[in-house]
Fold this sequence. Notes:
It is a single chain. The chain is built from 14 helices and 17 strands. By secondary structure, the protein is of the alpha/beta class. It folds into two domains: 2-49 and 386-438, Roll (Urease, subunit C, domain 1), CATH 2.30.40.10; 51-370, Metal-dependent hydrolases (TIM Barrel, Alpha-Beta Barrel). Helix 2 (93-109) runs parallel beside helix 3 (135-147), helix 2 (93-109) packs across helix 14 (436-451) and helix 12 (355-370) packs across helix 13. The chain is globular and about 65 Å long. The chain starts with a strand and ends with a helix. Bound molecules: N-carbamimidoyl-L-glutamic acid and zinc ion. N-carbamimidoyl-L-glutamic acid binds at residues 57, 81, 207, 231, 234, 293, 297, 319-320.
Amino acid sequence: MSRLHFASALLPSGWANDVQVVITAGAIAEVTPDVAPAAGDQRHAIALPGLASLHSHAFQRGMAGLAELRCDSTDTFWTWRETMYRFALAMTPDDVAAVATLLYVEMLEHGFTRVGEFHYLHHDRDGSHYADPAEMAGRIAQAAEASGIGLTLLPSFYAHGSFGGAAPHDGQRRFINSVDQFAALMTASRKAIGALPGANIGIAPHSLRAVAPGELATIIPLADGGPVHIHAAEQVKEVEDCLAWSGQRPVQWLLEHAPLDQRWCLIHATHMTDAELSRFAETGAVAGLCPVTEASLGDGIFPAREFLDAGGMFGIGTDSNVLVGVADELRQLEYGQRLKHRARNVLSGGARHSTGRTLFDHALAGGAQALAQSAVGLTPGARADIVTLDATHPSLAGRRGDALIDGWIFAAGGSAIDCVWAGGNKVVEGGQHRLRQSAREGFNAAIRRLVA
Ligand code: NGQ
Ligand code: ZN
């Protein structure tokens, strides 16, 4: 058991002062506001719940910043994807473990206490299958365990190169499974996370490009009630190709052919008509927004104001992991809207509402739903995932309540984070994860080999 005391903490009911939090077995057991610190309490100034990065491809952290020179006369999502495939093809299981470990360390240092790992790098470099289908998933679980981050493993089903059941191309050979092989992967993946505290599992049909309708229907039951995540409508070309194949747009196709409900998360959903947007919001499914990656890849701008007005739920993901941080994702989300609408505080909950607080609340709730966390936040029964901010940071000086969140997201960024507890373990102190040094060494050695 451990006892923490916060001068100020964001509870589900709002900001409270002098809050004592009792942690037992990795979960929050008691939350008591308005009590003086007791002897033995660990004392901190400002506490918030940790957020989820609901969409990550961990291995892509290894190529962060390495795709920023124009490859040809045009450089697009699709040329980036070829670069990314070449990088993926070179990585060994040990490389993936080293890269994922550093990534998860960085996520924790930047306010993420859970990750939804949309995992599709399954097979050996030549495409042959490992003896254990969850060989690579096991490396992800190992990285989660070492770092302490909560893991929602989302093994991805990937069978085709494009719409209409097109054959995959050679660069996709490490991703490909038959439906039966995917069922075996799910069984092995459940085993791989079995002993990992706080871990759970769902499924990730990769996209309507990679999964044919019959396959989608067959694999959904393999989620066994867990989350179902799918990429949808990220690029205009994807929308055009989907229309050419089916006469429908990707989100429209999913609304009409897939049992979308609160278990589902549509990743990106950047390109939607108003009708798609309001029907999507009504399903209760979550939009998995990855604003930094969507900007990096030139995807477009999600209609966030309209989606919230329609009652939609969203969470945030770090996706390509080119830059990792809660503040970075939420700031990019809001700034994209400001650029589009030519206005300020577009996603604020209303007059005199803090934009940072509004974004934070949505991302907390949407991330929890998309990763099947029934209790979240500083409340009894939730995993003890807690972030404290550094009250001495210049961008937080003189602030209280929601203004602290605005100072963090819009001014300080990740440097405002002081300590982080994941599953009740204090893994970050003074902004540094306890494995920062060793994780960097392991990562750097792997990357030096890969880029040589
Ligand atoms: C992915 N990433 O699966 O890593 C994708 C690229 C694809 C993003 N969409 C591959 N950001 O969508 O086919
Ligand atoms: Zn993705």
